[in-house]
Design a protein that fits this description.
Layout: E1 9-13, H1 21-31, E2 38-42, H2 48-60, H3 66-84, H4 87-114, H5 119-140, E3 144-146, H6 166-174, E4 181-185, E5 188-191, E6 195-198, H7 203-215, E7 219-224, E8 245-247, H8 248-256, H9 267-272, E9 277-281, E10 290-293, E11 304-317, H10 327-337, E12 344-347, E13 353-358, H11 363-373, H12 375-379, E14 384-397, H13 407-417, E15 424-427, E16 433-439, H14 443-455, E17 460-467, H15 471-491, E18 493-501, E19 505-508, H16 518-525, E20 527-528, H17 531-541, E21 546-550, H18 561-566, E22 570-573, H19 583-596, E23 600-601, H20 612-621, E24 626-632, H21 635-643, H22 650-659, H23 668-671, H24 674-686, E25 696-698, H25 704-707, H26 712-718, H27 723-735, E26 739-747, E27 750-758, E28 771-778, E29 786-791, H28 795-809
Parallel strand pairs: 1-2, 1-7, 2-4, 3-4, 7-9, 8-10, 17-18, 17-21, 21-22, 22-23, 25-27
Antiparallel strand pairs: 5-6, 9-10, 11-13, 11-14, 12-13, 14-16, 15-16, 18-19, 19-20, 24-26, 24-28, 26-27, 28-29
Length: 812
């Protein structure tokens, strides 16, 4: 071809660009977009190769139904030719297409008669896919020329995956005298001048690269149905985005580790001649795609993440390997002799073990080969062979990794924080690639967490499973919904709700639940509430940065906390049951959270939205010791005693507290002092005192006959009987200038809750409405206590506290 006078382009179009006449017209427009000389390499019309393979198998099995399939293929190709080829040459073109199809049909009938399909015959039959499409494309272009690729591409006789004789093939291409637009079939070659062969997977891309290298092309354009290389597989990582530019080395590494945009051998010919490769999308031609050359366009530490979803990890180990020369050679010679491809290698510095990854299909063969090679060592117990199934490889790739310290540390921290176990590690001395082996069940989570950590590190995502969407939970979701956009824009925090449940129904959606209509979704599409299934979804969805949010007062939900944490999921809870249960259970949960490196946050267990627990934790961590505390931590009771008046009797204040959302659903829990007892217990434990519920003296202010009523309805009927007595006591209290406060107190090992009378000199006297207050006496605050005071009840306040805990998990 005349390559010296004018630079040429080589364009390769995959099957998606040839699917039908409409798409072929778009392909033709791209080919004709400039007058430059070019070589166009095409795959078969979309799906044709697969159908020819299936027809061949049917014919060899004596199944004549392949003829029906053939008629469909014939009709499709003739129809595309009719729509694409100019009328003046349509007759001759259709005749040629029909002649080629007749040859194909004859071959299939021959297979049917012989009931035999040799690799040689299979290659010839499958080659019709590309040769037919190349001929049709060439005739649809003005001045287009179809050139039989077998004139140029010379291969060996390894049918199905023939190896190209590069020197001979390139020599023939350089001697070519063609001009204009040359269209050739991709992935097809010839052995011994007459026998058609196929290059196997990625053969069309490879053909294009060979032509580009031989002709010294200006560019090699690979047109596919994707926007070039992406930072990760978008089917597994929805946030993946296109890579603008990458080096040949980066592209080869990504291609090796499962990136299916390009077959790795394609890159070598272009790399050797320094020809830029441009990967573009036939369906998005205005997008620039990915340029692959010797440069890079940014200083990102890694360029992409790739994976091999299914491998087997074999390990040969034992004392018989330590310090023995030639052990590695024996291992890999044995595998090579059996034609077993090794994907990844990891060896302990002690030489005690060598681990390597192979295809699951090769695992048994590899074990047999090694067992034969090391038979004597295995028999004597010095060496053993182990296999780990259902494994995957994840690789991060980037030339700039060598200049960025801490990449490996960041990778393992990301994986560890999300509970992903790394089974093996491999890193080359070039620092271009770090590969890890992880369980296949964790692959999706690993890819997403790594991608978030390296590519959208300025945006932190949290995935929430919310149980309880009543007053507190409902307010929480309302607050999250109103703040989602602001949090992402201003604080780079993305909060997604992936599960909601009330006592009747639940909705689970790994892609996220629209908070603007979640109640309608729950009513119309919700399934029956099942806490076991809800918790199982955390493991099933395998999402990064999960948070289980408990906005209930239910005693059953906390029983699942241990299971939730075991899935490396943080917990934020407004439910006091867990932290006020047996001290052994309380400490077990705290230790489990630490072990799994997740958060267990329960600020709203005491004081609703007030930072009481957080302050106590900070004091204790800083070395201070809390010796005594006094607190009003029931917004319900404080509201009752502040509202109580001559015209607002006790029974009415209780009803008002419930209607305002200050009390528990059953106000008897507040009135009995049980709620305050739980809060006192939690406070004492946070201060470092291992109290149990039985250690706390509870002094109630309502007679037991009211608190022990069988039902809540019965309580509402009888509690007005106490109004007169409380009014008498209230008048006397007011006359003395005092007020009632229900106080939780801990001092010198004694913990109690009781109704106290305080005068104007007491710091609790001015406490208004449903406010809470706590006074902390510590080694550093012995006389004048550290006081925390503020709103301590109400759904909105509590929801705000829960929301604050959720945000703190992301360290925003």
């Amino acid at each position: 071809m005349k390559s010296n006078a004018q630079k040429i382009r080589v364009l390769k179009f995959g099957g998606a660009a040839l699917a039908n006449a409409d798409i072929l017209r778009r392909t033709r427009e791209i080919i004709l977009s400039d007058p430059q000389n070019k070589v166009v390499v095409v795959s078969g019309i979309d799906g044709t190769t697969e159908r020819l393979l299936e027809m061949s198998k049917k014919a060899s099995a004596g199944d004549v139904s392949f003829r029906d399939d053939f008629k469909k293929v014939e009709k499709e190709h003739l129809e595309i030719a009719r729509q694409m080829v100019p009328p003046m040459i349509q007759g001759s073109v259709l005749a040629e297409v029909k002649a080629k199809l007749n040859d194909l049909e004859d071959m299939l009938n021959g297979v049917l008669l012989l009931k035999e399909l040799s690799p040689k015959t299979s290659d010839y039959i499958l080659s019709f896919s590309e040769t037919l499409s190349a001929f049709i494309v060439s005739q649809s272009i003005e001045n287009g020329q179809y050139v039989d690729v077998r004139v140029f591409i010379r291969t060996d006789d390894q049918f199905g995956a023939a190896k190209v004789n590069l020197s001979e093939s390139e020599k023939r291409i350089r001697e070519w005298k063609g001009d204009g637009i040359m269209v050739v079939a991709g992935g097809v070659g010839v052995f011994d001048n007459t026998v058609t062969t196929r290059l196997g997977i990625g053969g069309s891309d490879y053909t294009a690269a060979i032509f580009a290298a031989a002709l010294g092309a200006e560019t090699l354009e690979i047109w596919k149905d994707v926007d070039g290389f992406k930072t990760a597989n978008p089917l597994m990582v929805p946030s993946a985005y296109s890579i603008t530019r990458m080096s040949y080395a980066e592209a080869m590494e990504l291609s090796h580790f499962g990136e299916d945009v390009m077959y790795m051998p394609t890159i070598h010919p272009a790399y050797q001649k320094n020809i830029p490769i441009i990967v573009r999308n036939i369906f998005n031609p205005d997008f620039a795609g990915t340029v692959i050359d010797n440069g890079t366009d940014d200083q990102a530490s890694i360029k992409g993440i790739s994976s091999i979803p299914s491998i087997a990890l074999l390990t040969i180990q034992g004392s018989g390997m330590v310090g023995v020369p030639g052990m590695s050679k024996r291992v890999f010679n044995a595998l090579a002799g059996g034609n077993v491809n090794v994907i990844l290698i990891a060896q302990a510095s002690s030489e005690y073990s060598i681990s390597f990854a192979v295809s699951p299909d090769d695992a048994e063969k590899a074990k047999t080969l090694l067992s034969n090679e090391f038979d004597s060592e295995i028999s004597s117990g010095f060496v053993s062979i182990h296999e780990e199934k259902d494994m995957s490889i994840v690789a991060i790739v980037g030339e700039n990794m060598r200049n960025a310290p801490g990449i490996a540390a960041k990778l393992f921290r990301i994986l560890g924080n999300n509970g992903i176990n790394v089974v093996a590690i491999a890193q080359g001395s070039s620092e271009l690639n770090i590969s890890v082996v992880v369980p296949s069940r964790a692959l999706s989570k690993a890819l997403n967490t790594i991608h978030e950590g390296f590519f959208i590190a300025d945006v932190i995502s949290l995935n929430l499973f919310v149980v309880g969407i009543g007053t507190v939970g409902g307010d929480l979701l309302k607050q999250i919904g109103s703040q989602q956009k602001k949090l992402e824009k201003e604080h780079r925090l993305r909060i997604r709700i992936v599960g909601v449940s009330n006592s009747r129904k639940m909705v689970l959606n790994a892609s996220g639940i629209d908070l603007s209509c979640y109640r309608e979704t729950l009513d119309k599409a919700g399934e029956k509430a099942n806490l076991k299934r809800f918790v199982e979804a955390i493991k099933e969805y395998n999402l990064p940065n999960n948070v289980f949010v408990d906005c209930t007062a239910n005693e059953t939900v906390p029983h699942w906390y241990e299971t939730v944490m075991s899935q490396y999921c943080s917990i934020v809870t407004a439910n006091k049951i867990a932290c006020s249960s047996a001290y052994e259970n309380y400490t077990k949960l705290k230790k489990l959270a630490q072990k799994k490196n997740v958060k267990f946050l329960y600020e709203t267990n005491v004081g609703a939205g007030l930072p009481i627990i957080r302050t106590i934790n900070d004091l204790v961590k800083s070395g201070d010791r809390i010796n005594k505390f006094e607190a009003v931590v029931s917004g319900t009771l404080n509201f009752i005693f502040n509202v109580l008046a001559e015209d607002v009797p006790m029974s009415k204040t209780i009803r008002m507290a419930q209607e305002a959302g200050y009390s528990e659903p059953d106000p008897r829990i507040d009135l009995s002092g049980k709620d305050v007892m739980r809060k006192l217990l939690i406070l004492a434990r946070e201060c470092g005192y291992p109290l149990e519920a039985k250690d706390i003296a509870i002094k109630t202010f309502l007679p037991e006959k009211y608190l022990e009523t069988k039902t809540l309805d019965e309580f509402w009927k009888v509690v007005p009987e106490a109004d007169a007595e409380f009014e008498t006591r209230r008048k006397a209290l007011a006359a003395a200038g005092r007020r009632w406060r229900y106080v939780a107190k801990y001092e010198n090992g004694v913990a109690e809750t009781a109704l106290q009378e305080v005068d104007a000199r007491h710091p609790f006297y001015q406490l208004e409405g449903s406010d809470n207050i706590i006074s902390l006496y510590t080694d550093r605050y012995p006389e004048r206590p550290l006081v925390i005071k503020g709103a301590g009840a109400g759904a909105a306040v509590t929801a705000t506290g829960v929301f604050s805990d959720i945000i703190s998990i992301a360290n925003v």
